[in-house]
Each structure stands twice: as structure tokens, then as C-alpha cells.
Amino acid sequence: MSQTVDRALSILPLLAEGPADLGRVADRLGVHKSTALRLLRTLHEHGFVYRQSDQHYRLGARLIALAQEAMENLDVREIAHPHLIRLNEQCGHTVHLAVHEENEVLYIDKVESRYPVRMYSRIGKPVAITVAAVAKLLLADLPENERRAVAEKLDYPLYTARSTPNADGFLKELAKVREQGWATDLGGHEESINCVAAPIRGADGRVTAAMSVSAPNVVVTADELLTLLPLVRRTADAISGEYSGRTPVKEVTA
Amino acid sequence: MSQTVDRALSILPLLAEGPADLGRVADRLGVHKSTALRLLRTLHEHGFVYRQSDQHYRLGARLIALAQEAMENLDVREIAHPHLIRLNEQCGHTVHLAVHEENEVLYIDKVESRYPVRMYSRIGKPVAITVAAVAKLLLADLPENERRAVAEKLDYPLYTARSTPNADGFLKELAKVREQGWATDLGGHEESINCVAAPIRGADGRVTAAMSVSAPNVVVTADELLTLLPLVRRTADAISGEYSGRTPVKEVTA
DNA sequence: TGATGCGTTGCAAATATTGCAACGATCGTT
DNA sequence: AACGATCGTTGCAATATTTGCAACGCATCA
């Protein structure tokens, strides 16, 4: 909507690919070098980009600090974190916390598996929305019309043979998930990785976040993972309780 | 340098303080509501801000994803991380990794103490540059004139009685640190917290990062912490070796 | 030494941004 | 139920801001 800002912001993802020099930025933006220079300077003043010694620009520190603050503002995360840790201590697998935002579902917290074989994921990274267990939970909670609208707008990449193939299949899956109050992803994203997930609800009963336990086949079979479901659900409920203010939070001062 | 972009970027730190509505943003920026609206829209399109259900704006997900990518681009971090973990396993204390950027020194990685009493710090947060051990190492490596220039521009807040009081004292400390090749912060930031730090050098011998071990008095005395110095230096040297390409890195495929 | 490539600056043209004023919707009050 | 207030939103005209150009300085390299 604002051309100048639009161009400036486009520089950031570009630099995320790796450091670039002025010419490269100008080319990628399709603007004159002088224009790119002035945009970069403004970004620089705000600390969003950093000019390294070889004159190449890269993403700056303020960005990292801001993101950190953004995450601290997500109070679900604050509340959930100790629970995630405890769950990880109990089962040993990777534990994720995810929220739905702007047609994306993204991880906002993660506790690494204690097994040597781990799944790859990254905080802040959008998840495979059509197959991830947490995504199903978050989308399943939307009102029916929104759910349909979202489902039809999505792409359905066939990561594996068990990936959700299309909008119809996805909507059916969401209905099921909504019904049963938990979700799984059995090899729908990575052939050998399974997940069990449970919803976290706010005071209004809406699903505001979802958490999951993920483990590769080589560590536990899907069936074994499913035996953890009650534990996952209990944990999610405990978080819901605190988050919605029903459960008093025990203050622990360091 | 570019007014529009400048204004747009100013919105982000503002939102980092907490969600705000249009009026508030406009006020803080000192612009008309319609202007603020258009800026917010542009930020929104890029996913930098998110409009929550109550019409308040907050920092968006793309910011988190970008920051994560920015950190992954810092390859010192990649290389150092397993070493930090190992060091933490050996000593149990909080381990930090920091770099110098744009007149700030900031943490880019952290492994939490395994003791119940922990120090507060945050990845992405600028450190107390005049007292932190890692900051001393990073600044001590600058050429003499730059060092002086930086030292004179800084403020010297008296966090504690042992904080560096002024530029002269700081430069003397830097000279000492430069000489001995390691640094400490003994209660200069928080009365009860001590740190030992060692430099990480790139192929050119310049200090590109610094790492530290921090622990509160109640866990170990300053003297006890200092006995860890050889271990910290060995770890830092190991990272330097890998980072500068001297030590072959053992590829570990998950 | 000359040539090429890069970042940088002043300037005038023109485009994009701004603030205004009016509208519509939502919410709380009388 | 109607009214008033508050807040977000849009079209428009004025103008300030941004843009691309061309020229310059500086480095590197042949």
C-alpha cells in the first residue's frame, strides 16, 4: 500500500537469504541503486540491517531483539514453557507449541528431544499447515465458514503418501479433530515422523494454541506414541487452566 | 533518511512494548490516523504486524521467522552451539555467546544454568557494554583509535560499586584484557554475579565473538569460577579452530 | 597508467505520501 | 430505542518526498 515502505520491507527477506551488496539489492528490488541505497540507510539507522566490513548488508541485531520481545509478549508461551519442559522430561520426545496467525500456523516454542535422532523444526517457522497435528487443531476450531474458506485457499503438497490430498479430505479431518479434541500426524509430513497434539484453550473456550509431541518411527512406533495421548492432553489442559485464569499460578521467584 | 520508511519502522519497537490500536500508534508517531493506518497496512501485508481480533496491532510472525533466519546466518553460532552445550554439561553454569555489532554487544546464544538460581539475560538483548566480560573482549580487539572513540562515546552507568566508572578506567581494563586474552566481570553488573569470558577468533586472528560462563555468588565464589578459566579458554579455542577452518569439522548427520 | 566496477551525492521531475474532512460502523449511554 | 461518542476507513487535492539520472570519487585490476 505504501510503495516506499513496501520496497524497504522487501529487502529484509532478501537479506535473510544471505548477505548482499548494494547492486544485488537494487537489482532484486528492480529500482535504481541510489534508491536502494537510501532504503538500506534507513533500515540501517533502525538497526534492521547491518553493514559488515566487506560492505555487504545483512540482517541486523534489532531484528533479533524485536523478535525476542514479540515472543515474550505471547503470554501463552510464558505460561506453557515450564509445562513443555516437564512433558519433555516425562517422555523424552520433542515438544512443540504453536499458534495460528494470518493463515499460517507457526511454532513459538520447542523443547528438543532427548533422543539422538531428532526431527527438524524451527521456532518461528510456519508448519506444514495441511498435515501438522497442531495445525489441524488450530484450524478445526474456526467457525465452519472460515474453515471452509481457509481450506479451499490452501495448497495440498503431497509430502508423503499419507499427506492430506485436498480441501475435502482436510475438512473431513478437521471435523474429526474438532469432534475428538485431539489430533495426530502419522507420517503425513515426514514419512517416518509421527505427532500427537492437544489444544490449549483460553477463557472463552476458543483454541488459542496447540502443543504436540513428535517422535520418529525409529524411536517409538505410532502406537507407542499414541499411548502418550492422555499425558499430552493433561498437560494441555493444565496450560489451558492457567492461561484462562482458572488455575491459580504458583509464583516462583528465582 | 526516508521519512515514510522511518515512520513505518518506528512502529515496530512501539508495538514491542505491547499491542496498540490505531489511535495510539498515530499519536506516538505524531502523524494523522490515516497515515498511521496506511503504514500499518503495509507492515501487515509483509507480516510484520498482526491484527488481533480486538483490532489491536501486535508484532507479527514474519518478524520471528526473519530473526531466526538472521541468527542461522551467523555461522559462529552454528559452530559454537555444541561446544556451549558441552561446556554447560561440564560446569553447569549459564553459558553465553556474544558478538559486537554497531556499537552494541549482544547475546546470540545461551545455554541455561542447571542450577536453580539463574541470571537473567536474553538472546538478542544488548549487554551492559561497559562491564560485561564478553563486551570487554570484543572491544579490546578493536584498533586503538576506534577503541578510544567508542570508549568516549559510551555512558558509564554505575550498576554496582564495581562497575567501570568512566572511559579512562574502561580503556585501562581493555588494555589489560587485550594483554591477557581473557576477561572477567566480577560483580560489575549485578552485585552477586560473576563471569569469566574468552575470545573466539576468525581466520584473520580478529576476535569475532566471545563466550562466557556466568554464575551467582550463592552458587560459586568468584575464585571458584576463575578455576574454570582454562576450560572456558579451551572451549573458545576449539570454536576458533573450527570457525577459522583450522580444525576439520566432524560432520554429524542426524 | 588507464579502465572497470562500485558506492555515493546533487538536482530537477514527478510521483507517492500526507492531512483533511466526511462517512459508516460499533459500542455504550441516556 | 435513539442518540452520541469513538474509532477505523476512504476519496481527494496539495505538496512534500521520493525517484532516477548523471556525474563524481575511490578502489581494484589489467
UniProtKB/TrEMBL annotation, chains A, B:
Domain called IclR-ED: residue spans: 62-245
Keyword Transmembrane helix: no
UniProt-listed Pfam families: HTH_IclR, IclR_C
Gene3D superfamilies named among the record's database cross-references: 3.30.450.40, Winged helix-like DNA-binding domain superfamily/Winged helix DNA-binding domain
Keywords from the named record: DNA-binding, Transcription, Transcription regulation
Position of the signal peptide: none
Listed InterPro entries: GAF-like_dom_sf (IPR029016), HTH_MetabolicPath_Reg (IPR050707), Tscrpt_reg_IclR_C (IPR014757), Tscrpt_reg_IclR_N (IPR005471), WH-like_DNA-bd_sf (IPR036388), WH_DNA-bd_sf (IPR036390)
Ranges for domain HTH iclR-type: 2-61
Keyword Transcription tagged: yes
PROSITE patterns recorded: HTH_ICLR (PS51077), ICLR_ED (PS51078)
Full protein name: IclR family transcriptional regulator
